[in-house]
Amino acid sequence: MTTSLVLFKKQLLALGFSFEENKVLSSLCTWGVGGEADVFLPVVDEKQLGVVLRLAKEAEIPVTILGGGCNVLIVDEGVRGVVLAMKIGLWDEEEFENHFMLRLGAGVMTPRLSMWGKKHGVHDLELFSKIPGTLGGAIFGNAGAWGYAVSDYIVEVVAYDFEGNRHVFSQTQCGFVYRSSMFKQCSNFVIAEAVLSIPKQNKLSKEVVEEKARYRDSQQPIGRSAGSVFKNPEGGFAGKLIEEAGCKGLQIGQARVSDQHANFFLNLGGAKAADFLQLIREVKKRVKEKGGVELVEEVRFLGGGLFYEI
Questions:
Q1: Is 52 helix (H, G, I), strand (E, B) or coil?
Q2: Order of strands, edge to edge, in the sheet holding 36-43?
Q3: Which DSSP letter does residue 231 get?
Q4: Could you say which DSSP state residue 128 is in?
Q5: Quick check: is 214 in a domain?
Q6: Is the pLDDT confidence value at 216 over 90?
Q7: Residue 90 C-alpha from the chain's centroid
Q8: Residue 302 CA to chain centroid, in angstroms?
Q9: Residue 236 is part of a domain; what is its CATH number?
């Protein structure tokens, strides 16, 4: 254990911040894999986030952000430094003639938005029940379904840099594109909260929303997965390309490409992160050899420098 990490933990204790040491992370991600975090700290409000980021910067402690644990692969070797679990649950709402304005914390779970929409007659928000995780994670990856994305509702995003400074970004400044954002592309900011504008007028009829929800449910495999492993390439579908490359049912260790939807990789029980990493590499290789398409991961890798190994 480094001297700087010892000092960092002493500072956290002095401020009354609760944290865990050597926290096993596998239970916190939907794939059920991953090693330990040196320090695991739930962040419950903006002020705490700014203070912890500043202290970590001063002590030169690496910081990793964990939302709902969906669409991430945590490596077997674990994550060095401090893992901040985003638990900012702020929820403020205001109603206007044609829309609602919501100010929500990054730790709000997206299915809660869907339930709120049902209560207020905004069934378009059912899409959020199909992209589980936190709002912060959804903004980070511009999550979406049915041709819509979280960016369609964003007015502004509050985020902190890794020196603990607060910034406010307009929807345009967030740089939203398909399954990505400025926050994902540069990784220089931590999302704390966001303001959303929710129109009262639905774009889709209730019947269409229910039909789309039933179809999506029927296509998604049951089991431990991280959702879509790869982004859909322009003009195509990753799952179709994986299937055409003969990868349905491909298995390494206890990690398997789903027989139902080839862009879902399942933990059959006891899989390691290394199994999924090897499976991802093999699928990318076969798809490239089959049709010349270079698949790009939608899942995010935490710990172990995996961005350089893929």
A1: helix
A2: 20-24, 36-43, 79-86, 63-66
A3: P
A4: G
A5: no
A6: no
A7: 18
A8: 11
A9: 3.90.78.10
Same domain flag for 233 and 149 = no
DSSP β-bridge partners for residue 195: 103, 156
Q: What is the CATH number of the domain that holds 71?
A: 3.30.43.10
- Give every CB contact of residue 266 below 8 A, 6+ residues apart in sequence: 221, 223, 224, 225, 255, 256, 257, 258
Residues spanned by the domain of 250: 221-309
Mean pLDDT value of segment 128-138: 89
Number of domains within the chain: 3
**CA angle, 82 then 86 then 88, to 5°:** 135
Statement to judge: residues 58 and 101 lie in one domain:
no
pTM of the entire predicted model: 0.92
What phi and psi, each to the nearest 5 degrees, are found at residue 3?
-60, -40
**Active-site annotation, residues:** 179, 228, 298
Long-range contacts of 181-184 (CB under 8 A, 24+ apart): 181/139, 181/140, 181/141, 181/142, 181/151, 183/139, 183/140, 183/157, 183/159, 184/140, 184/141, 184/142, 184/300
The residue behind tokens 């010892």 is: 6
Span of 94-103, 121-130, 211-220, 286-295 with lowest mean pLDDT: 211-220
Buried b (16+ CB within 10 A) or exposed e, 203-223: ebeeeebeebbeeeeeebbee
The amino acid at residue 69 is G
- Residue 102's identity, in one-letter code, is L
Q: Which residue has the tokens 């990753």?
A: 238
Q: Which two tokens stand for residue 127?
A: 């899409």
Q: What pLDDT is stored for residue 1 in this prediction? A: 57
The more confidently predicted of residues 132 and 270 is 270
- 40: nearest Cα among 70, 74, 73, 71: 74
Contact predicate 62/75, CB 8 Å: no
Partners of residue 134 on adjacent β-strands: 109
- CB count within 10 Å of CB 235 equals 5
